[in-house]
Specification:
The protein is mainly alpha-helical. It contains five helices and no strands. The protein has one domain. It is globular and about 45 Å long. This is Reverse transcriptase zinc-binding domain-containing protein.
Length: 106
């Protein structure tokens, strides 16, 4: 199954992307607390998009391992997260909330 190290690699890459110093978490409650904190430099909407993409990717990889026994390297999974976030920002780029998110993510 998936290990904490797998999610840790994904989280490290995400932190590198958003340039936010966030300690690693080991419980979902810590992730949700981090997401809803107002002290972060990252906008709330970007944090929510990242959490959604991270959760979906980890769940997808878990199902892939469970049903197909084919592991996907964490950096390949991060590329899927990256593509999902870029596509989401690009799709909503005309909205005011989303106008500056691409520069924060890239």
């Amino acid at each position: 199954m998936l290990s904490y190290l797998y999610a840790g690699v994904l989280w490290t890459e995400i932190n590198r992307r958003i340039r936010d110093l966030v300690p690693p978490f080991s419980y979902w409650s810590h992730l949700m607390q981090r997401t809803s904190s107002s002290t972060s430099l990252t906008p709330y909407i970007l944090r929510m998009m990242v959490v959604q993409a991270l959760t979906y990717t980890i769940w997808q990889q878990r199902n892939n391992m469970l049903h197909n026994q084919t592991p996907l390297p964490p950096l390949v999974a991060f590329n899927e997260i990256n593509r999902h976030i870029i596509d989401s920002i690009y799709a909503a780029r005309k909205r005011r909330k989303f106008s500056s998110l691409m520069t924060l993510w890239l």
